[in-house]
């Protein structure tokens, strides 16, 4: 465990800080889980680099914003980025694809026009998700290990499992078409620290609006 002091600032909900929390849990790394209430946010907002959360405060001095940047920083610091430049780039590729897919899902949730929402939903289910999961299936097939990149666990493995958690009951049905992604998910979920972390979280169904 590192002696560095980490303070993770986020809202009380699950969301963009989940992967960072999962990384800390997997690494058995202590950190301060600083949760900001909606009523407190106006006060804290101006102190954050881009007036958004999550923000990771390192040793009470450096503030790191942007969820993916925080994740990449931790992955680099704790050797979860693969063994060389190629593996770290493949990890980034997985992370970027997950972010793109997640941004699309957020767009659906935020759409208030029901017709536009329906069209976006169709595109998500018929195009974005199959393209994304199909890509991960191809990566797992090519890689031929239990991990999506290389043969040791990277933050891309944790990010993939974290993203599938958001599909919850729907993912079981969907993953029938992607047997390698399904097996990968079962493998990552069987890691005790990962499994315990997911069990300790609020159910994601609480946040479903789409
Ligand atoms: N691109 C940023 C987006 C961060 C973001 O959208 N944060 C939201 C919470 S999930 C936020 O801070 N909302 C409050 C606000 O914008 O005032 C990231 O990935 O960290």
Automatic annotation (TrEMBL):
Q: Does the keyword Transferase apply?
A: yes
Name assigned to this protein: Glutathione S-transferase S5
Alphabetic keyword roster: Transferase
Instruction: Domain (GST C-terminal): give its ranges.
Output: 84-210
PANTHER family membership = GLUTATHIONE S-TRANSFERASE (PTHR11571:SF150)
Query: Which is a GO BP term held by this UniProt record?
Result: glutathione metabolic process
Organism of derivation: Brachionus rotundiformis
Q: Name one Pfam family in it.
A: GST_C_3
- The GST N-terminal domain is annotated at 4-82
- GO molecular function terms noted in the UniProt entry: glutathione transferase activity
InterPro entries the record matches:
Glutathione-S-Trfase_C-like, Glutathione-S-Trfase_C_sf, Glutathione_S-Trfase, Glutathione_S-Trfase_N, GST_C, GST_superfamily, Thioredoxin-like_sf
């Amino acid at each position: 465990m590192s002696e560095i002091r980490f303070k993770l600032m986020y809202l009380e909900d699950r969301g963009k800080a989940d992967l960072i929390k999962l990384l800390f849990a997997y690494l058995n790394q202590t950190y301060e889980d600083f949760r900001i209430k909606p009523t407190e946010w106006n006060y804290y907002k101006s102190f954050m680099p881009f007036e958004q959360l999550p923000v990771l405060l390192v040793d009470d001095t450096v503030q790191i914003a942007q969820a993916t940047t925080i994740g990449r920083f931790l992955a680099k610091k704790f050797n979860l980025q693969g063994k060389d430049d190629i593996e770290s780039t493949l990890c980034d590729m997985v992370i970027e694809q997950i972010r793109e897919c997640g941004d699309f899902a957020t767009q659906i949730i935020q759409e208030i026009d029901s017709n536009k929402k329906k069209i976006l939903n169709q595109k998500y289910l018929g195009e974005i998700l199959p393209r994304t999961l199909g890509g991960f299936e191809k990566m797992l097939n090519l890689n031929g290990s239990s991990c999506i990149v290389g043969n040791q666990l990277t933050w891309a493995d944790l990010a993939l499992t974290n993203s599938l958690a958001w599909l919850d009951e729907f993912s079981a049905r969907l993953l029938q078409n992607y047997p390698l992604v399904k097996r990968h998910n079962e493998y990552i979920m069987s890691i005790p620290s990962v499994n315990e972390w997911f069990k300790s979280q609020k159910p994601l169904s609480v946040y479903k609006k789409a």
